[in-house]
Specification:
Low-confidence stretches: 9-24
CATH topology of the largest domain: Rossmann fold
Helix content: 40-55%
Radius of gyration: 21 Å
Strand order of the largest sheet: 2-3-6-4-7-8-9-10
Structural class: alpha/beta
CATH class of the largest domain: Alpha Beta
Number of helices: 9
Mean pLDDT: 89
Number of strands: 10
Shape: globular
Order of helices and strands: HEEEEEHEHEHEHHHEHEH
Strand content: 15-25%
Largest sheet: 8 strands, mixed
Number of domains: 2
Oligomer: single chain
CATH architecture of the largest domain: 3-Layer(aba) Sandwich
């Protein structure tokens, strides 16, 4: 009788664990996009010297974005499409946009749907539409894809990796890229069947491995959000790697990731393409 009672308790505990696991998995499925996308939805106003522009997406959303232009004397006649990460909004990236513009680039600082006062809710397919609209805006400003560099930050690397497959630019800079977003989620939630649960996969490696677009990969060795080894793998498998930049001891959101190391890597990429 004692053995039977013990076995019943084990079965009961196992059932509770499975039920709790199922509830957790269900919650992750239902709310995963609120974990993946963390927008600052507050409307923003363009600062002095920055032009407010509107992107019109293929599903008829009108999205605010900023165009930061260089001084005429330093103009490279090259645009940079800046695809940000999953948090904040464009106001938090104006300093790096201005730093890039100071090097002679015209910078289109994008905010996705749901960010910075924009309508809509973010998703992988939605961000892809937003990026296509950004490329079209630059074309209307006189910058063909051959005169454009894509700069993707974190989840933005997934956005520009997909965009370059459809609209190949002169080059791409990936800041803190991952092989795919499932690998990032699996790192943070190893106890969940992430690959079967994820709605948004952002397969960076898949898009870039088959591409001949020149690529620079920049990452920090102390990144606690996107494991550095995932960025290394992207560099190793890129179809046309120009440079890999590993910033020793730098984390995902450290100041260096929004400053001089990124700007300098972009300048080197542009200079390499001009040779």
């Amino acid at each position: 009788m004692a053995g039977t009672s013990w076995r019943r308790r084990v079965v009961l505990i196992g059932g509770v664990v499975l039920a709790l696991g199922g509830l957790l998995a269900g919650a992750m499925w239902a709310f995963q996009r609120s974990l993946v996308f963390v927008p600052d939805a507050a409307p923003v106003t363009a600062p002095d010297g920055v032009r407010e522009v509107t992107l019109t997406t293929s599903d008829d959303l009108e999205l605010g974005a900023w165009l930061v232009e260089p001084d005429a004397a330093s103009d490279r006649e090259t645009a940079v499409l800046y695809a940000p990460g999953n948090g904040g909004n464009r106001a938090g990236r104006i300093d790096i946009a201005r730093g890039i513009a100071a090097e002679g680039f015209t910078v289109l600082l994008v905010d996705y749907r749901g960010y910075g006062g924009n309508p809509g809710s973010p998703s992988e397919d939605g961000l892809a539409r937003d990026a296509h609209a950004a490329a079209e805006l630059l074309r209307s400003e006189g910058f063909d894809p051959a005169q454009t560099l894509y700069l993707g930050e974190s989840i933005g690397t997934g956005v520009v990796a997909r965009l370059q497959a459809d609209v190949p630019p002169a080059g791409v800079l990936l800041r803190s890229p991952f092989t795919d977003f499932v690998a990032v989620a699996s790192h943070h939630f190893p106890f969940l069947p992430v690959r079967t649960m994820m709605r948004d996969e952002f397969p960076v490696e898949e898009h870039l491995g088959a591409s001949d677009v020149p690529v620079t990969v920049l990452h920090g060795t102390a990144d606690d959000i996107v494991p550095s080894e995932l960025s290394v793998q992207v560099a190793e498998t890129a179809g046309n790697l120009v440079e890999e930049v590993a910033l020793d001891g730098v984390g995902h959101n450290d100041a260096e990731m929004f400053g001089r190391p990124v700007i300098d890597a972009l300048v080197r990429l542009a200079d390499q393409l001009e040779r």
